[in-house]
């Protein structure tokens, strides 16, 4: 089979009702998983109620969105495994997840147990929400879109300006693709920085305000780093042995090298940049990954991967970017999975 990476989405893809099609299509598999999720978190209203019938505002709240997205992603993976015989360990060479998606990737890789990861993500979301509430300024994130030959120069100009002005509460939070990166922090400070580079450095990236009221992957999130170090360091919290798949760190864009490395880097990821573009480059160029499987709600991750590896859908010679978000896509997904395996065999 082709070398394969399994990837998961991050915050922002949540949608009220995103579990409903899966429950309707596979009740005998999904209902026990939903009961397990609700028993694990014991919140009111329950997480599954928030997902199926809550308000968009409640589901978007960080402490709800993060466990909701991770739970939905793993639920879809479990449906694949139980209903269709998908063998993650036999099909996949690497796992990775964008920002929050790293937790689903660690569950899929076997490094974290699902229920303990769900509790961690809920606690992490609560602390992150409190961090955001502690600021009196308008906080958030702004994505910048550049031409491919301008991204690095624009990044350099912004980094120089922020280094020269430590009073500015803004930082680079994500490097998502060869044309896009994200700034996080005080919105007024980010806008001030953009005004500076447009005037003095002749860089004029297109700015898009993200639907996030929290400055993720910024120093304001350091309390979440402290929390995650504590939770991940508990006995038996992390498994790292021959049974686990290689999982790519958001912080280094390389596989975690040990249990201690995993604890350190996963904790730090709450306040440090997501090197998503570099992660895809590493797998594509150095590890020669040809088949990419996206599991979970939304299409953002699939689009970012497809743009970098130059494939939309099946790419021939066993390669392709496959994605599973909704049960209606299952037939096409399973055919593509089989077809890419056949081409690789030939």
TrEMBL record:
Alphabetic keyword roster: Acyltransferase, Transferase
One GO molecular-function entry: [acyl-carrier-protein] S-malonyltransferase activity
GO cellular component: mitochondrion
Pfam families noted in UniProt: Acyl_transf_1 (PF00698)
Domain Malonyl-CoA:ACP transacylase (MAT): 7-329
EC number annotated for this UniProt entry: 2.3.1.39
GO term, biological process aspect, one: fatty acid biosynthetic process
Keyword Transferase: yes
Known catalytic reactions: holo-[ACP] + malonyl-CoA = malonyl-[ACP] + CoA
Top enzyme class: transferase
Keyword set includes Transferase: yes
InterPro entries on file: Ac_transferase_dom_sf (IPR001227), Acyl_transferase_dom (IPR014043), Acyl_Trfase/lysoPLipase (IPR016035), Mal-CoA-ACP_Trans/PKS_FabD (IPR050858), Malonyl_transacylase_ACP-bd (IPR016036)
Identification of the protein by name: [acyl-carrier-protein] S-malonyltransferase
């Amino acid at each position: 089979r082709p070398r394969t990476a399994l990837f998961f989405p991050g915050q922002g893809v949540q949608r009220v009702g995103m579990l409903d099609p899966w429950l309707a299509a596979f009740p005998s598999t999904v209902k026990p998983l939903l009961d397990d999720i609700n028993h694990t978190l014991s919140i009111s209203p329950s997480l599954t109620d928030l997902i199926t019938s809550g308000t968009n505002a409640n589901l978007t709240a960080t402490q709800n969105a993060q466990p909701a997205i991770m739970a939905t992603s793993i639920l879809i993976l479990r449906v694949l495994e139980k209903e269709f015989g998908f063998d993650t360990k036999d099909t996949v060479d690497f796992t990775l997840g964008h920002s929050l998606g790293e937790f689903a990737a660690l569950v899929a890789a076997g490094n974290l147990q699902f229920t303990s990861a769900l509790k961690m993500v809920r606690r992490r979301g609560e602390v992150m929400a409190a961090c955001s509430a502690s600021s009196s300024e308008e906080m958030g994130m702004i994505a910048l879109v550049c031409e491919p030959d301008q991204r690095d120069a624009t990044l350099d100009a912004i980094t120089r300006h922020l280094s020269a002005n430590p009073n500015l509460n803004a930082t680079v939070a994500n490097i998502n693709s060869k044309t896009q990166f994200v700034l996080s922090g005080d919105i007024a400070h980010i806008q001030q920085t953009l005004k500076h580079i447009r005037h003095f450095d002749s860089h004029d990236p297109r700015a898009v305000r993200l639907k996030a009221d929290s400055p993720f992957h910024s120093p304001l999130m350091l309390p979440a780093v402290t929390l995650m170090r504590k939770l991940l360091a508990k006995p038996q919290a992390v498994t790292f042995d021959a049974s686990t798949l290689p999982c790519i760190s958001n912080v280094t864009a390389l596989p975690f090298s040990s249990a201690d490395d995993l604890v350190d880097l996963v904790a730090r990821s709450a306040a440090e940049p997501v090197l998503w573009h570099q992660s895809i480059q590493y797998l594509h160029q150095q590890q020669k990954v040809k088949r990419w499987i996206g599991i979970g709600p939304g299409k953002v991750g699939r689009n970012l991967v497809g743009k970098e590896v130059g494939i939309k859908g099946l790419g021939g010679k066993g390669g392709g970017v496959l994605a599973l978000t909704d049960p209606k896509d299952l037939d096409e997904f399973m055919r593509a999975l089989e077809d890419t395996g056949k081409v690789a065999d030939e």
